[in-house]
Amino acid sequence: MKNNLKGAMSVFAFSFTQTVKSKVFIVTTLLSIAIMIVCSVATSEESGIVGANKGNIKKLVINDSVPLPQEMYEGLKKDYKDLEISFTEKTVEDFEEEAVDNEEYNDTVVAFVNFNHYFDIQLYKNNSSDIGEIEMNQFADTFEEVFNDMKNANCNLTEEQKKLIDMPVSTKVTLISEEKDINNDSQAEASKFMFVIIVFMLLVMCGENIGTAIVTEKSSRVMEYILTSIKPLALVIGKVCSAVAATSIQIAAIVAGCTISNMYSKGSSDAVNAAANLSIGSLKIEGSPAEILLGVLVMIAGLAIFALLSCLVASTASKIEELAEVNRVYTFLVMAGYFGGFYFFTFGSGLSNAIKNVFYLIPITSVFVLPIDLLTGKAGIMIGALSVAVMLATLWLLFMFVSKVYETLILYNGQKIGFKQLVGIYKQNK
Amino acid sequence: MSLEVKNLVKKYGDKTVVNDLSFTMDKPGVYALLGTNGAGKTTSIRSILGMLAFESGEILWNGGKLDTSKINVGYLAEERGLYPKYTLMDQLLYFAKLKGVSKEEAKKRIKDWAEKLQVTEYIYPPAVKGKKAKVKKAEELSKGNQQKIQLMAALISDPELLVLDEPLSGLDPVNADLFKNIIKEEVAKGKYIIMSSHQMATIEEFCEDLTIIDKGNVVLQGNLNEIKKSYGRVNLCVKVEGDIENLIKEADLTVVNKTPNEYQLKVNKEEDAKVLLEKILQTNLPLIKFELREPTLHEIFVEKVGNVHEE
Fold it and tell me: Taking burial as the number of CB atoms within 10 A of a residue's CB, which of B8, B14, B182, B204 is the most buried?
């Protein structure tokens, strides 16, 4: 086995370096980042809030049900010098009724401070507020900092208050509108769809990169030379890892573009902001470490399955012109997983457990849906482990098939090979 | 050192493309694998190099199984291949790395080979008028120059066993001579070389031993000189200023080929040639050429492969 893998690292290093320094890669990556930034700026301009995501919070109304000393909230003025702080007895419901579509509240944040084993701070702004989402989140962070500063400061606190202040602090930013609570939950929902899109992009781009690399070597006949030094398995592993790494960089660049766009965006629910809000923070990570680990394993196994499929499909073509044609099978499988993922997250709540399990267990769809559900604790360890087992079994079967036919296929130059011929080659090499 | 190919059989489905191929190289030199297109030469080479799995047989290097990932092997494939979009230096360094040659050593060897093969200007392009030198990609080179780069790739690891599949095809006479000289140098260094070629004159120039295969079967094998000797001096070339058609008929000789004033004849024994010579001299026609010789490899090849095809 060790001998079979000898040289894989060299193949990876060469393929990765050449891909990353190719003009096509650089141009497409920069273009993706530029498109995301331009889109976000255009959206922000439309909203008239370019550069207005700082200093829009003028007033803070606090309902402190604990209560804590009012002077501790003065700590907020360290970052917000002109902040007017006032206190109220009004409830969330009162505020919702009063603040919705009320322009007077456009520069106001209302904070509800509760205590139930930990500090629960809920920050509200109304739907027409000038305050951007990023600014609200920054304000929430400042609020937490003030609480943490309190722990170190020698304030005139009673023993009971000192005990209280040592408890954990949790903040939640909420948008008050007639639709109510469209913010964090909708962001989490958008993040799920964004995850599906990102997996789709990753698989399509990986497939394209792997396919192009293999067919280029086949059509340029470099393959024959390389095979005098290394085994086909090492070649496949090096190529696949390089394609995955290069694609991951592109995806990371696109996500970075989304994040930058978020810097300029207001917390609205349009598509760009949905993309921009793809931070893991938008998702409630409620899965246990084991579930998170299973999620990562599902992701890796899924990528490996699709990468092997891509290798297999690409090796049936001999010329670069044939690649698009042979890649149809691969694209169909990725599309099936993509639409499956969308269907799952759109109708997820209405699906029976049996149907959900089918989505979790089929390797083509599980890579699109299971990692997120494991991360958010919606799928348990049992189904996660079962899915990983199914994926590993699929991977093994696929690997056995590919290893039998790949050796013949990578040296084959002729008309493209059909499924029947593939099975024939497998039987022959068995 | 020795290379032994024992009873190699390779099939594609039900079709046997290499049938019981065996040969041995027990001393440095060039071993020729000859055959028509589709005879099974490249499949044999790929099987020997372990690129293709084969049904039965053994490939031994110094008595042990030949494993190209452990033994230093150089290979120049029949159909040339380089990454078209990558720079020459990058891919040569990559090929060297796959063969376990360090970067520093590879750079040194690339420089030496580039000088020998006269491709320095493509690998180390000079700067023009203060502008940065434009590094060449493989696709920017002519076919012949690409072939030189590939030969460099095959030789960069200083291989013990060198496999050259049609090394001279597509080269102009000057570059063909350059390649021939390099092959001679490698032989002088004690390298084992397997070479396939359609150019019989080239094979005759280098090879002592050969195998001719046709449709996967060995049709002739052995030492070239001995093979030729076994045929005897039966080929007669006669050039006379005048018509000797009747004299040839009288001597009962077979005309293999006829060009103006020159006849290629087949004789059964050397005495038949002497009879014809006496008759020509009696006519007083000016005799320009009268050569009785062993058959060329080309003639042997055509005869052997032609015979099989006729059968």
Answer: B8
